[in-house]
Amino acid sequence: MPLSDPLPRISRRVSLQWMLGAAATLATANRDASLHAADPSPIAKGYGPDPSMVTLYKPGDVWPLTLTEPQRRTTHALCDLILPADESSPSASSLGVPDFLDEWISSPYPGQAADRSLILDGLQWIDEESTRRFGKPFAALSLEQQESICQDLAPLKPAPEFKGAAIFFKRFRDLTAGGYYTTPEGSKTLGYVGNLPLASFDGPPLEALKHVGLA
Amino acid sequence: MPILSPDKLQSSYDVVIVGSGAGGGQTAYTLTMEGVKVLMLEAGRSFDVQSEVAMLQWPSQAPLRAERTPDKQYGFHDCSIHSGWEIPGEPYTNAHEDPGNQFKWWRQRMMGGRTNHWGRISLRNGPLDFKPRTHWSLGFDWPLSYDDLAPYYDKVEMLVGVFGTNEGIENSPDSSPGVLLPAPKLRVGELYAQKHGPKAGARIVSIHRAVLTQPQDAANLPAKLHPGNVKAQRILADSMRTRAPCFWATDCHRGCAIRANYDSQTVHLRPALQTGNLDILPNAMAREVTVDKTGKATGVTFIDKTTGREGHVRGRAVVLAASSMESVRLLLNSKSNLFPDGLANSSGKVGKYITDSVSSSLGAHIPAFEGMPIHNEDGAGGPHAYVPWTRTQQNRLGELGFPGGYHLEFTSGRQMPNLNVVSGLESRAGSETVLFGANLRKEARRFYGAQLGFGAQGTMLPNEDCYAELDPVLKDQWGIPVLRFHWKWSDFELNQVRHQQDHIRDLLEALGGKVQPKTEVDPRTAIRQGGTVIHEVGGAIMGHDPAQSVTNQWSQAWDVKNLFLADGAPFASTADKNPTLTIMALAWRMADHLLSELKQQNL
Question: Is residue A177 part of a domain?
Answer without folding.
Answer: yes
